[in-house]
Amino acid sequence: MCTRVHRHSIFCILPPHILRAIATNSAQQPEREAALRTLSLDSTFRSLRLAGGIPTGRPHIARLGAEEGSKQRTIYSANGHQDLPGEIMRKEGSTPSSDVAANEAYDGLGSTYDFYWENFARHSIDDEGMPLNATIHYGSKYNNAFWNGEQMVFGDGDGAIFERFTKCLDVIGHELTHGVTQDEAGLIYQFQPGALNESVSDVFGSLIKQFQLKQTADKADWLIGAGLFTSRIQGKALRSMAAPGTAYDDPTLGKDPQPAHMRNLVRTFEDNGGVHINSGIPNHAFYLAATKLGGYAWEKAGRIWYETLKDARLRPNAGFSRFAKLTVSVAGRLYGATSSEAKAVGDAWKEVGVRT
Q1: For residue 23, which of 5, 35, 55, 332 is within the disulfide window of CB 3.0 to 4.6 Å?
Q2: Residues 111 and 80 grouped into a single domain
């Protein structure tokens, strides 16, 4: 995921291995070119991150956030260019735009804010009322979406493999949650801490969608990015929390490489040590805990994960084992050490091989 958080980290929703597969396997030159342009742009973002920042084309101006419980959104359009933020399309409280992507972005930012406020009394990404801004129509057939520490940015997709990236609420919630994670825990974006960073975003991206749809755990699809692929792709979504490794199996994209158990942990230096791949393990643990507990997943399992994210014992270099231990401890603090909630969380981590 390609996001800049607090002027340092870059996280994009689309894993680089998918873009590389398209560049290698697609028989269509425009698709290969779109994938290569996106890879090149994302690589530039990462280089700029290491150099200390991403130029926005305007000076940073301190802005006052909205009052607690109220949103402050602005949607811009880059009109196919890469200058940020772009032309204003819709502001807080204004009537819907004629541009469907503008309305999707506006609604997605609002749904994410509402989820965190109504369930955890969190006042925006930084819990201090940070304005929620987004730019749509970024670049030419840009196959990604990211949060740069100040705003969301959405590509339109290439139209052949990917639809517009504003379509999926869980994608928006995922990216904004990277900001929450950075603000609370600062998980290092490498190897297991990086996979946890990705997993936390998937967890809350899915919960935000479930909250919007008022779905119980047994009714949710537990997919990330469902609807992002066009109809020609043999796949349901980017990732499946219920069954990691089954989200897609397509001649162009390849097969979903996510493991669901520690025995299949992928050891690699690519993609910051497999952060988008190995996130399948903690993703599946959350799914198991949430479905064991039943009901609305954000009420118990989601609260346990959120309180763990805020726990001072969660260090930036935490791996799966430390995170699992903390979730069990937090569940015990919230519901009792011998509670069904603590047992469900502990059992879930055992089922994915993180705890014995």
Answers
A1: 35
A2: yes
